[in-house]
Predict the structure.
Amino acid sequence: MAQIDGLPPLSDVIRTHELSAKKSLGQNFLLDLNLTAKIARQAGDLSGCDVLEVGPGPGGLTRGLLAEGARRVLAIEKDARCLPALDEIAQAYPGQLLVINGDALDVDPLAHLTPPIRVAANLPYNVGTELLVRWLTPKAWPPFWQSLTLMFQREVANRIVATPGSKAYGRLAVLAQWRSDPRIVMELPPEAFVPAPKVHSAVVHLDALPTPRFDADPAKLSRVVATAFNQRRKMLRSALKGMAPDIEDRLLAAGLKPTERAEQVPLEGFCALARQF
Ligand code: SAM
């Protein structure tokens, strides 16, 4: 195991602090510090950046981020059992690690961090997509973050980078590709985690674009896309008919065929349709 800092190996940390994994909190821990350092490197140049980490758990990725030179890390962890382990890391990096015991959905990172800010996390599966959608759909753009480097179940990662015409193409692909440049940068087998989940995982890196690729209001785009893909096998005119009585006219005005299915519509088409509302 790599000696990236003077702290004990993660298996010892887990044993000392009795951090048996809780399924309800999506706890699958990474114990290999080589791997967490590699993930931290995928986040880009961290020197001069503050980093938001959601769900540090025993702190493997946190240690990677600090060892890679992050100016400051804000780590939000719901499980209070992890706090003593995280406190040991804070002591090894004085003034550089702020830990908040709470729900990441309730914390405003800008109250604690200074731009430029990067986000890096091995996300809990239960709030992962909700957080991603939030980070992608603020009213104003550019957002508080410069990049997101996030571990998801591989199936979710595939949905984020999917292109029109594929089964994985849907709301996540449209929202992610509208305002950022997402790519899968690492794949991990179940055995990389303790306990091993049933599925493979992947790390997605998203760089925020300076401006969205096409003009659209985030709330309207989000609603149009969610409604269209809710019945993805249906033609757009029936999938979207609840949104407006004159939906066929709006589809035509957006340059879309009412008989098309959501799966075939490129990002530009969804943005044009959102502008019709
Ligand atoms: N980063 C660690 C690692 O890579 O080993 C742990 C990752 S584990 C997949 C997800 C972590 O998120 C757990 O430590 C869990 O307690 C925490 N968590 C779950 N829901 C959360 C929430 N709503 N807000 C903050 N942390 C949460």
Remarks:
- The radius of gyration is 20 Å.
- The chain has a mean pLDDT of 96.
- The first strand starts at residue 29 and ends at 30.
